[in-house]
Amino acid sequence: MIKPFLQEVVEDLIERFGTNLQHCAIVFNNKRPAAYMQKYLANVIQKPFFSPSFYTIQEFFAAATNYKIADFYLQFFTLHKIYNQLLAEEQLEPISSHKFFPLAKIILSDFTQIDNDLVDAEKLYRDLEDISVINKDFDYLSPEQYEFLAQFWTSYSEGKHKKQQELFIKMWRRMPKLYHKFHATLKTQDYLTNGYVYRHLAEEIGQQENLPVDFEKGKIILVGFNALTRAEAKIFTQLQEAGKALFYFDADEYYLNDPLQEAGLFLRKNLNLLGLKNEFEHNTSLMKTESHQVNVFKVQGQSAQAKILNNILADDYSDQKEIGSTVVVLADESLLLPALQTIPTSYNQKTIELNVTMGFALATSSIFGLADLWFASQLEIIHNGKVSYKNVEAFLTHPLTGLSQKMRDKILTALLTENEVEIQHERLLRQSGLFEVFYKKIDSPKSVVPYLLSVLDFILTRLSNAKTLKKIDAELFVKTIQELNRLHDTFGKHIGEEDITFVIYLVQKSLQTIAVPLSGDPLNGIQLMGLLETRNLNFDKVVILGFNEGIIPKSSIGNSFIPDSIRRVYGLPVLENLDAISSYMVYRLMQRAKQINFVYNSLTDESTSGEVSRILKQLEYESSFSFAYHELNLEVKTEAFREVKIEKTNNVFIQQTLQKYLDKQKVLSPSALTQYISNPIDFFFNYIAGIKEPKEVSAVVEANEIGSILHKVMEYFYEDLRKAEITTDKIKEKRKQIPALTQKAFNAVMFNHPDKAMEYKGMQKVILSIVEAYVNIILNQDENQAPFNTISLEQKVEAEINFPLNNREASVKIFGFIDRVDVKDGITRIVDYKTGSDKLTFKDVPELFNSDGKNINKALVQTLLYTYAYEQFSGKTRVEPNLYVVKTMAVDGVWFKSGRQTLSGEYLEEIKPEFLAELRKKLTELFEAPYFVASTVEDNYKYSIYKTLFGK
């Protein structure tokens, strides 16, 4: 095994300092290496010893100052206040917190970079409208820098300040004042920003005496640094000159001594330009001397990258070594969950040790889901005193609310019955318990955090008492409550005047950043980490997932108000820096690894380029590593068509259910029969298996509900008129009531409450208008037909139909509601209203019943059934079916037609017995055929909700 970098550092330090090592401070870029370093120290010394102190660079520098570090929210509120003061000085309108928030994030990030790189903010933000000023004031620039600066300002002066440019220049002029006032205000409260701590130490040399090290006996050991900010560079050189620091750079001459290698860019600066001395400067090149095997896996799809891990890690599952010799690096951190779902917990009855250093995000947990639901509900309550049904339903069914199934069903059933799209806030509060805590209205910006804490506290207590709290949830709860308490302390002085919705937004944003580390042993088993966390660590086997161009290196440097040309003048980070940092991190992982596996997604979509990282291309071209290529092709197979049919003969349940129809315990509706004719298997799912579509509360009115509302209006309309002959004048007079009757019908159908007083909104108004238009079309027809007499409205009719079954006579009862029966010129008419696109034409009677034909006319079968039932029920003959298809009746009339023949008079009387004979055949088939099958004509089940169940 190649010796890890940190082990080499440990051996060198022990040789140098011996027992004085306890007086040294060992400083890293990040926290992770300290555990490894302690392990190597213990392995080498092999007896009790006093450990040196370990720090991250931020902790180390922060320890040297008496100031506290300002968190983001303190910085934001301070910045916003000062920004508005500056706007007031310019006699401009103040900017709201909500609008300023995204700007503040960019400004604060810029200020941090300015401080980290010791840039003079005054000069950087200098207003250079006159290009000649550059010649005078910037004579220290190199020709290239001068070119960048001239280019930037020329682009502005040429356009002579368009509106956007003017706004930018105004903001640009505000920046120096904002920068100085911002830092001064924080300082008066004993706070500094992280970036300013660096500046403070770099510019005030006396401050470095306060660094937490005993310089008499020990030194500062700076391990594994690469890209340094100007402040770090200055502090590091001063410490080296004072003989207080030692540097261990993890470098390889392969990329260090070749100026074309971007991986060595920053190390060359540190060693050649700054003159920092690397204690390991004469190490041999591992990139050149050791053998490296590289496997490249090209896969299709984002999550598929993780799915290949089981192939790559098979050896590691069976044989786990001490000090995790295998690492899975997620260049794309969104692959954390797919990777966790792929790596098994045990292999051949042996537990697999897995340590995940990346945090599990609160945003992907049910706790955040509940908090998010609380934010959404509170915004609705603040906005209109109601909560939408979908949010109430989400609350009732959320796993953490812990409501019993019985309570859940009771409330949901009540809400479904009322079909209320929004529920009154007071009504929710009346439910007490969790409802009272969850729906308590936020009354001031200061109560946002305490109220959310009380919701979490209520749920946490209930889960603890019920002993159903999961370990990961417990950690997330603790972290969330800690963060909320911290926010509460920071917000205290600043949010009195803020808008509640903005405070909710801030809390939401803050919770999105929370993550808890998943447990594990940082030294044993397979390590799962992000690329940044691998700094200083070495592994024999490296797997990098998400090795795509645009991810590694990244394709954007983040938002900034400092343009690229000016960044280059002042040496602030630019895109090439990211390339160099990414290359270095990959190369240093590789130099001590024996086996390297790169996995990338070859599919192009909005988040990935589908191309492998250029770092691989470079390695292929110039290194002597051996490469093996693997491609994971996912075969897309279409499932072979299988005909789904339901056997009746040997199925007791089906036979018993069908028998209920024959015993008249169940009655057959016209719609059940037409469903059987169109697609027999649908009849099974609906009427035998009883699979129904779940009811939903929706602001959108379904097509069948429009039909129900129309039927109701027509019933209300003719209710009073039916007592006497209906004339044109009577219809005209009653038409004035249509709007009121439509609203009454709407309330009856949608809310089960005809006299409900309500205010109609958006879509509801549209539906009312549509129904009114439909009613008017029907009444136009009726005025032309008047006078006539109405016999009944919405009348229920029943009749028995006999048919042969297994060589014996059987019968079923059919029933239905006839929209209207009236008499005109001595002829009794059955009137059926339709709001769909039903047709009046038919081919012939046998085709009406042909499940595998294209000429089924459901409306005709239904109205002829009504006609038959009504004749049986009333003893009348020559009853005529009429169909009022509102969309087409003004043109097509109301009679069914076959060819040119209208279905009335003698032709109708000929058709009736033929219809009855075909109907009997169909009923025999329903009860006698061995299977329920699907129609072979796709149009016959086009709108079926059961399509997926019968394999279509």
Automatic annotation (TrEMBL):
InterPro entries documented for this protein: P-loop_NTPase, PDDEXK-like_dom_sf, PDDEXK_AddAB-type, Restrct_endonuc-II-like
Domain PD-(D/E)XK endonuclease-like: 668-926
Pfam families recorded: PDDEXK_1
Name of the protein this chain belongs to: PD-(D/E)XK nuclease superfamily protein
